[in-house]
Every structure is written in C-alpha cells, then in structure tokens.
Amino acid sequence: MPQPTEMPTPTPAPAGPSPQAALASRAIGAMFFSVFGSLWIVLGLAIALAQPPVWVWLLPALPGLALLGRALSVHRHHRDALRALEAQPEAKQRAQRFHWINAGQWIAIFVLGNALKWLGLGAWFLPMVIAVVGLHFLPLAGLFRYRPHLLTGLALVGLAILAPLATGRPDNAWGPLGAGLILWASAAWALSPWAVRPATPGTA
User: Fold this and answer.
1) DSSP state string for 115-140
2) Would you tell me which of 57, 88, 151, 183 could form a disulfide with 33, CB atoms 3.0–4.6 Å apart?
3) What does the DSSP 8-state code read for residue 88?
C-alpha cells in the first residue's frame, strides 16, 4: 500500500510591525518635521519682518517645542518595540535605502544650489530647496508604504511652484512659512493614532 504523502506545512508570513513599533518610528520622523518646520518658519519670519520684536520668535518656538516634546515622549514609550523591528533584515535594508535617498537629497541641493548661483539665479535657491525636499518624500512614501509622505512631498513641490508665481518673486516669505506649516502638519499627523494601522507592512 502506498503511504500517503504528508502535505508540507506552509510557512507563516512574517508579521507586520506592531502598532507600538510604528508609533515609535513615526515619532522619529515627527522629531525632524518639528525641528525643520520651526527652522523654516523662523526663516520665513526673518524674510517677512525687518526688525521683529522678540516675542515674534515665540510663534515658531512654542508649537515646535510642543511637537518635539510629544514626539520624544511617544518614541521613549515605544522604543523597545522599535528595536525589535529594526533587528529584522528587511528593516535594515529599508534603512540603508533611506540613507541613500536622504544623501541624494543633500547632493541635489548642493549641485543645484551651485548651478543656480553660477547662472545668476541665486534668488531661486529657497524654492529649489523646498522642491527637492518635497521630491525626496515621494520615494520614501513607497519605501515605507506610508501615503502621508506622498501628500507631504506633493504639497511642498506645489508650494515651491505656486509661492513664486503668487508673489512674483522667488525669494518670498510664503515659501518658507508654508514649508514650515506643512512639516508641522506632517508631524502632528504622524503622532496621531490615525497614522498607525496594525496591518501596515512598513514604517517610517
């Protein structure tokens, strides 16, 4: 009698990151968004106001510090779950690709900034930076499977185009102010419970 063959046991699919790990990972992004958002706001105020009173600088400081403090608290609360996620081979490969994308952003800013200066178009430096920062979010949206990065990137690229058109000059205050607000909004969303779903296969 032929012996019945045993069916191979299917290998279980790897579980996605836990909501706790995703929260901690989003919090890291929110830290950068809050800091760079504040810097953009400060730059915009410096362009818009010749000699602003001291209290004006509290406008970007208070929301920026509030977002940063919240991000630090969320990360500290869930960092053990994030360490477990980062130990996985897929997470290490994703982190390496992230570093390459981030490096490409800074190289593009350096090269294009010098090109604009050589062409006598130095006034377009800030719109160029905003556009490059926005573009670098587009591959990150796919890398981390996090759609809000796509919205952030498209909003920044649109701002880089529309602010000079609306004001008639590239070195306007609305570009930096808008960039700061977009990054703050991205930080606030990343720290919200709606930004994390248990089934999400990647984090950012």
Assistant:
1) HHHHTT-GGGHHHHHHHHHHHHHHHH
2) 183
3) S
Comparing C-alpha atoms, which of 154, 156, 155, 147 is closest to residue 204?
147
For the chain, how many structural domains are there in total? 1
Query: Which residue segment(s) compose the domain that 85 sits in?
Result: 19-193
pLDDT category of residue 19 using cuts at 50, 70 and 90: low
Amino acid in position 133: V
Residue 124 lies in a domain: yes
Asked whether the predicted pLDDT for residue 6 surpasses 80, the reply is no
Domain assignment of residue 168, yes or no: yes
Top-confidence residue, 194 or 146: 146
Task: Please state, as a whole number, how many other Cβ atoms lie within 10 Å of the Cβ of residue 7.
Answer: 6
| pLDDT above 60: residue 13 | no
Nearest CA among 13, 62, 12, 2 for reference residue 37: 62
